[in-house]
TrEMBL record:
Protein name (record): Class I SAM-dependent methyltransferase
Keywords of the record: Methyltransferase, Transferase
Molecular-function GO terms, alphabetical: methyltransferase activity
GO biological process, one term: methylation
PANTHER family found in the cross-reference section: METHYLTRANSFERASE
Pfam families: Methyltransf_25
UniProt key word Transferase: yes
Top-level lineage group: Bacteria
Methyltransferase domain location: 46-142
Amino acid sequence: MPETSVAHFYDELADDYHLIYPDWDASIRRQGAALDALVGQDRAAVLDCACGIGTQAIGLALHGHSVTGTDVSPRSAARAAREAARRGLSLRTAAADMRRLPFTDGRFDTVVCADNALPHLLTEQEVRAALTEMHRVMRPAGLLLVSTRPYEDLLRDRPASTPPQVHRAADDGERTVTFQLWRWHDDGERYDMEHFQLLPDRGEWRVKVRRTTYWALTRNRLADLAAEAGFVEPGWRMPQETGFFQPLLVARAGT
C-alpha cells in the first residue's frame, strides 16, 4: 500500500474518531490517568508521536504535563489541538511522520506512541527507524510508552472481525455502530483492516468504510527492536496492572 494510505485513513476518520468510544471523554480521563501513573513525574515534557485526535495527549495534559502531539494525519492533529483548546488546555500539534520527527535531540522526558499506531509500519526497518527517532528526541533515561494490540492472542486466533462498539450521543441518544473486518495476509503476520461505521441518517443507516493495513508485531519482537534502537530494559506491562486498555511496552532511553 502507498505510504500516504495511513495518513489518508486517519484524515478520513478524524471527524468521526470519537464515535468509536462509548464515551470519549471518559476514555480520555481513564487513559490519561493510567499513563500519568507511569510517567511518574510532575510537568513532564511529553511527545505523543501518534496523537490522533488527542485521546492520550489531552488526558496527559489534564494531569499538568507539557504535551506536544504529532500525527501523520494533518486533520487528526488539527482536531487534537481544537479539542484541547475547547477544554482550556494547551496542546501544540503538528503533522509529522514518526520516522522523521521535527524536533531537536533530547527535547522530551517521555515519548508516547499509543493505540496500536506503531504496527501501521509494516517492516522491521520502518519500526526500527521510528523507535530510533523516538530515542533521539528523548533526554537521557527518558521514558518510552508504546501500546499495541495483544498480538500473541490475535495471531493464535486469527479473528476475522471485532465486536461492534456502540456510541450513544448525549444530546439526542442516537447511536453509531463501529466494527472492523480483518483479512490476514499469506505471510500470517500482516492484515488488512476495513473499518466500518454505521451512522444514523433520518431513520436510515449511512455506512462509512475506511481501509488500512497492520503488522501483528509480537511483544518479544517489538522489545528487541526497541533495544536495537537504543532503549534499555524494555518490558511489558499488561492492562490488569496498569489500567490502560492495551499492553504497554515500557523502556528507558540509553545514554
